[in-house]
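Subject: sequence -> structure tokens, single chain

Hey, anyone have a minute? Need the predicted structure for the following. Not urgent.
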Amino acid sequence: MRLLYNIILLILAVPGLLYFLLKMLITGKYRDSFLQKLGLRQARVLDNIGPGPRLWMHAVSVGEVNAASPIVAELKKIRPDFRVIFSTSTETGQELARKTVAGVDAFIYFPLDILPVVARMLDLARPDIFAFVETELWPNFLSGSRRRRIKVVMVNGRISLRSFKKYRRTSFFWRRILQSVDRAAMITDLDADRIVQMGMPPKAVEALGNSKYDALGAATSPALHREAMRLFHAGPEEKFFVAGSTHPGEEKIIVSVYKKLLKHDPEFGLILVPRDVGRAAEIIELLRQSGLTGPVTFSQIKSGARSKVLKVVVVDVIGELFKVYSLATIAYCGGSLVPRGGHNLLEAAAWGKVVFYGPFMDDFHREAALLEEAGAGIRITGEDELLEGILKLLQDQAELNRRGENGKSVVLANMGAAKRHAHVILSQLN
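Reply:
Had a minute. Here:
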């Protein structure tokens, strides 16, 4: 099966490499990250790591970086002598990691799963333990780690329903791959059950909670809220409808609800944060066609091109959503009115905000259930229910505040998972 995997990988790699080479030549994008993913420009960084046990922590992109950060922090508290190599797959993830993950000895890009590239990177990094966040099962990398007797741990493991269906159809393949994973520290019992069904031995699996609670609970601060107010030129009494991590098809619904909301309160502002910030121009055009005057991008405000927010803003910069949620009077979490599995609604809840979301919350079903129980999460099926829910809450400010504080309490009460995941990593150190 691994031979077949590598044959298919080789067939796909040729057009893939050509695509990225053209992108590099034409736009200059991926120049640094792409070469590093081929195992180049990494030796000097890895050679400068001091003595001590080595952990290679991998987080694919922004969401995984947020989950990994508190685990690394807890690990360094317990064992300051640990040397940490931190990798990401995306440039946005790398940028965020360099800003937010403390105690790291080397930041690198994760290699492409090509045998000679993987072998070079493992020999350069020489980790004692490789820990990866959520579900990153790269066959060549994992088998290469096993041959070198590197302990492999999955932390903050999550297997969405969509992913599980795919894994289950090819369980004969993943059962062999999972033999290279020593421990799987999952988020929920459901995640633990799914990876056992994929072939992971039950005795090597446990459910320890979500380390993102720790990251969010520690990150909220009055100073960060004041920074958001300054960046958006927002006064303390201004009200905003914040729609985060939206996907195509959702912005049209959000805009329609917002226009009806303006009839009840003309002073309300709208901040749209698309999941793909590259769609900002498309969303600005949608806003203009909807008759909303003066929509601006966050980049325009930040550069000073617009000295004042004109009520409607599209955030076109990565890494600002958590901060923006602090401004919300009402929040909506995207990827949920379209079948994308939802996104991290805890980011808004950590600020004490009531969060609306659609029916498609497969990837965050546990978090949604906890917030719904506290009254801080409200599931809607479409535009009419969203508008009705917002207007109902706005009529009772005390009730809105109470529900929001209940949601914040849920986040704080579930903190502590990062330390548990860190102990799993430490347990693998000989």
